Amino acid sequence: MVAFIADMLDHLAPLSRARPIVFAVFTAVVASLILRRALRLLYSSRPKPKYVGQRDENGLMTGKGKLPLSNGDFYEGEFIKGMFHGEGLYMFKDGKSYYRGSFKSSMFHGKGEEMYGTSNSKYVGSFKANRRDGHGRIDYGTGGSYVGKWKNGLKHGTGTLKYVNGDKFFGHFENGFKQGAGEYSGRTFRIVGNWTKNHADADCIVHAKKGFDPSHLIGVSEGGPDLTNIQYSQ
User: Fold this and answer.
1) Which of 43, 61, 95, 166 has a C-alpha 20 to 30 A away from that of 5?
2) Which residues span the membrane (predicted)?
3) Is 149 helix (H, G, I), strand (E, B) or coil?
């Protein structure tokens, strides 16, 4: 191939003198094609990940096995007809993140646990098509947790959200937001009422002891209206 290119350039030498701009463009295009061809050959020559494990009569991965993936991830567990199916462990290439549990058609599906290495958070519960779905608990790496219902990877349904400072919210969630009836409990107060996209509605009732400082409510409603309906007790 190199000899062919050299011979072609010799024949095009007159063009380089007569029309240097055209010749420069032509040689740039040829160089680009050569580079793409070389990269394609290099990629195709790389060793493919090797599967170690059981196969069915048609040669498809079926049963227990181990499969390193081309993106650097790794799977070990049960297969059916070439897909992750059953119980297994999927380890991400960072070496810290993983999913361990049930698979269906190569997706996280059923009961399992997932560790998120970048945030050091861990979820244990139900999955559906790679997303948290059903009942589950997540402990956040920065502190705090959520226990309750999920849908499509988001908090959805009844649950309890605990914050780093010890406060907690128990109530209804929708598409990841506090939505509907709920109760927020702090060390010195409780907020009872309805919530809209994480904001406590203005008519929520704040239960607190005498001497309570309303400034403690700042930030609790996450940008919602000021809470002025405070009922004091002894």
Assistant:
1) 43
2) 20-39
3) strand
- Spatial separation of the C-alpha atoms in residues 92 and 115, rounded to whole Å: 10
Amino acid making up residue 224: G
Tokens of 17: 């003198």
**177-185 and 121-128 beta bridge pairing:** unpaired
Please state, in angstroms and rounded to a whole number, the distance separating the CA atoms of residues 31 and 136: 56
Collapsing DSSP states into helix, strand and coil, what is residue 167?
Answer: coil
Contact between 180 and 170 (Cβ < 8 Å):
no
Residue 48 in tokens: 């493919």
Strand, coil or helix: 220: coil
| Predicted structure pTM score | 0.76
Stretches in the chain below the pLDDT threshold 50: 1-2, 4-5, 15, 43
Residues 17 and 54 in one domain: no
C-alpha neighbours within 13 Å on the C-beta side of residue 177: 12
Does 125 reside within a domain?
Answer: yes
Looking at the structure, tell me whether residues 165 and 225 fall in a common domain.
yes
In a domain, 135, yes or no: no
What's the token pair of residue 22?
């055209």
For the chain, give the percent of residues with pLDDT over 90: 64
